[in-house]
Amino acid sequence: MKVYGLPEDEIKEALVSGQVTVAVYGLGKMGLPLACVFAQRGARVVGVDINPAVVAKVNQGICPVEGEPGLPELLKSVVAQKRLSATTDGVSAARESDVLIILVPTLLDQSKNPDLTAIVAAAEVIAGGLSCGDFVILESTVPPRTTRDVLLPILKGSGLTEEEFGLAHCPERTMSGRAIRDICGSYPKVVGGVNQRSTATAAAIYSVINQKGVVRVSDATTAEMVKISEGIFRDVNIALANELALACQDMGVNPEEVFHVANEPYDETSGRHHFNFHRPGAGVGGHCIPVYPYFLTKTTRTDTSLIMTARRVNEAMPYRMVDLVVEGLNEIEKSVNGSKVLLLGLAFRGGVKEARYSPALPIIQKLKLLKADVYLYDPLFEPEEIAETGARPGNGFAGMDCLVIVTDHPEFKDINWEQVALQMSSKVIVDGRQVVKPEEVKRLGFIYKGIGRL
Ligand SMILES: NC(=O)c1ccc[n+]([C@@H]2O[C@H](COP(=O)([O-])OP(=O)(O)OC[C@H]3O[C@@H](n4cnc5c(N)ncnc54)[C@H](O)[C@@H]3O)[C@@H](O)[C@H]2O)c1
């Protein structure tokens, strides 16, 4: 049933009573949970992905996405109930659907310009099957004006006029590892249409799945700016914490103590803070925060030197980690050249299997340039995946000269340092995530170097 422009109550009723078919383009870490949640709420859902292996797994009720609590069970149940099926045929999916959601990756090219290839490809496929009354939603994070200036013209290539279909940007505001919880209502859904009818239609659709409701913004470009601004806010604040942490260390002051005291609530009753310093660390990874600043800086004519400086500070942190490796080894009169260095963690964030833009990658590259013998261990990655980084798959601490903690995986917090001390050749730890208790390892004879700690 076509829902674009209908009264909001009718749209909600049609969705929960199974009269609406929703197509989700991109069955990745974000798209698959979204497809499952719509199916659970009553919609008929067709998932579209260019990867036949993903489609085959979804149709068998086998979850291709790792590390999303509740997703394997939900997928199995909605596939068994025949509410969700998957296909590689995006044009047919568009023909049989009423609401079409794009949630494919948006990355950067070699020159750090936004790479919208996947969005353009998905939009062209949708245009091939678009019909009057269809409603298209872009959820992928994009540079401001993409919905209006890139997506709308492609969809009009279907032969339909702007009045005959709806279009909105409703940005994904979720984190890997908690997608279902976030989709269902950690934050209200931001909805911005290319016209008022589109905003209202999007509001009705998302109020069915999001318990916190929706925030209607002026237009699609405002919605795009909300999402980009959130990412940039984090990037700039992390850069500030990184720079202050380095300055504290230079002054002989413990950054941990400074941030802890500054972040204390000033009003115990309301819990309000004067300040909310972020955590300094080995670098900012994942395919969101390191990417989104460029979506703005590469598209606006405004001077974005503050945002670019923050990006440069964060991009330099992995190299600061390498400096600490060199300093630590030099303190025991060892050269990095020929030393065995074991990195702990490839994932950009603890507990999340995602290596894109991980600080581990530049750390490995630089250490190899300095002729270190580089090993890498991450409990979430197979040895073959580790080998693709250029490091050797690590298998224990025996014979290592230096450990470099890049990720705050829970397992790293439980390492028995007494055992490790017995196995390593030289005892240097570089801690990029404040995982180790410095006093404990120093007592065992380790040289401890860390970001954010004295
Ligand atoms: N992962 C996160 O934590 C997160 C959080 C917020 C927003 N986002 C945004 O969500 C979007 C998707 O991210 P993700 O983490 O789900 O990506 P992902 O890499 O996990 O999955 C993307 C999927 O899209 C498929 N795909 C690629 N091109 C396609 C096309 N033309 N048609 C159909 N399918 C196609 C891929 O095969 C893959 O299965 C990105 O724009 C990202 O910025 C991600």
Question: Could you outline the blueprint of secondary structure elements for this entry?
Answer:
Elements: H1 8-16, E1 21-25, H2 31-40, E2 44-48, H3 52-59, H4 71-80, E3 84-87, H5 90-96, E4 99-102, E5 107-108, E6 114-115, H6 117-127, E7 135-138, H7 146-156, E8 166-169, H8 179-185, E9 189-193, H9 196-209, E10 214-216, H10 220-250, H11 255-262, E11 265-267, E12 272-273, H12 292-297, H13 305-331, E13 340-344, H14 360-369, E14 373-377, H15 383-387, E15 392-393, E16 402-405, H16 410-413, H17 417-423, E17 428-431, H18 438-443, E18 447-450
Parallel strand pairs: 1-2, 1-4, 2-3, 4-7, 7-8, 9-10, 13-14, 13-16, 14-15, 16-17, 17-18
Antiparallel strand pairs: 5-6, 8-9, 11-12
* The number of domains: 3
Q: Which whole number gives the mean pLDDT?
A: 96
As a whole number of angstroms, the C-alpha radius of gyration is 24 Å
Percentage of residues in strands: 5-15%
Order of strands in the sheet with the most strands?
3-2-1-4-7-8-9-10
> Any idea of the CATH class of the largest domain?
Alpha Beta
Question: Helical proportion?
Answer: 40-55%
Mind describing the biggest β-sheet? Answer: 8 strands, mixed
Which overall shape is indicated by the principal axes computed on the Cα atoms? Answer: elongated
Going by CATH, the homologous superfamily of the largest domain would be: NAD(P)-binding Rossmann-like Domain
Cα separation of the termini: 62 Å
What is the number of beta strands? 18
CATH topology of the largest domain: Rossmann fold
> What compounds are bound to the protein?
nicotinamide-adenine-dinucleotide
Helix/strand class: alpha/beta
Tally of helical segments? 18
Second-tier CATH architecture of the largest domain: 3-Layer(aba) Sandwich
Given as residue ranges, the uncertain stretches (5+ residues, pLDDT < 50) are none
